[in-house]
Amino acid sequence: MGGCQSSTPNPSGTIQCQPVARCCSAIYHSPPIWWFFSLDEIERCRLAGILLSCIATTLVTITIATEFWVKRFVRGIFVFRGLWIDCQMGSCARPEKVHLYVVGSMLLMLISVTACYGSVISGTLCFTPLPRLKAISWPWLATSLCFVSGLTGAMSLFNFMRNATRESGSYLSWSLAAGWLAVIVVFVAAICYFWASRWEKELLSENMCTSRTLLTLAEECRLMESEDSIPRHRSGISDTSV
Predict the structure, then answer these.
(1) Is there a smaller number of Cβ atoms within 10 Å at the N or the C end of the chain?
(2) Which residues lie below 8 Å from residue 6, measured CB to CB, with a gap of 6+?
(3) 3-class DSSP state for residue 23?
(4) Which domains are assigned to the chain?
(5) Per-residue pLDDT tens over the stretch 3-58
(6) DSSP assignment of 95-161, as one string?
(7) Based on the number of CB atoms within 10 Å of its own CB, is 120 exposed (0-12), middle (13-18) or buried (19 or more)?
(8) SS3 label, residue 218
(9) C-alpha atoms less than 13 angstroms from C-alpha of 85 in its C-beta half-sphere
């Protein structure tokens, strides 16, 4: 690949960048790039939904794992609290008393991250030749899981923020911002999945209508040919009888 940085002069004085062109062609024809450019618009929209679901899963995981949900000013120091632990002066420990709203937020966030990860798996299965489920297809399952993840995540964050701000000396921190960003991203992923599925259904219905039209035209042509052949056959019989 060192030849990509060199160029060969022409006898006419111009410079030919053949090694650079070969390098760019090799990158363009590499399997991942070639696979991406070979996708149609529906598959690219679905791939965007998968990537957004992966980003949302990462953001939800960061939100759950970090302790910067709320901070409190206690005795001259800030105490950071998350869903699982409290941290102050670099030392962290589990809280002795867990409020009921924190438990509810925990359960909702666990449902949210599980559904978000499930949307990544079901969205990836849309590109595989695996059979569909009995009642629902992979694209609709991915769309439903994204909506479930976004709704449960938003409910968890709203529940925590509403109850935490009622306590005196409490301030919201940046983990909640990551959580709300994950909710927005997962809703956009759901829109991508939904639009790709609707687009695919419209194309299938158009193809079915076109095939039906062609079949009806072919049947009409056959009927016309059969009707034309009947008089000819009758005229041939009359000629032989004469």
Answers:
(1) C
(2) 19
(3) helix
(4) 1-38 (no CATH), 39-222 (1.20.140.150)
(5) 444 444 555 444 445 655 554 554 455 555 555 556 667 788 888 899 999 999 99
(6) -SS--HHHHHHHHHHHHHHHHHHHHHHHHHHTTS-PPPPSS--HHHHHHHHHHHHHHHHHHHHHHHH
(7) buried
(8) helix
(9) 12
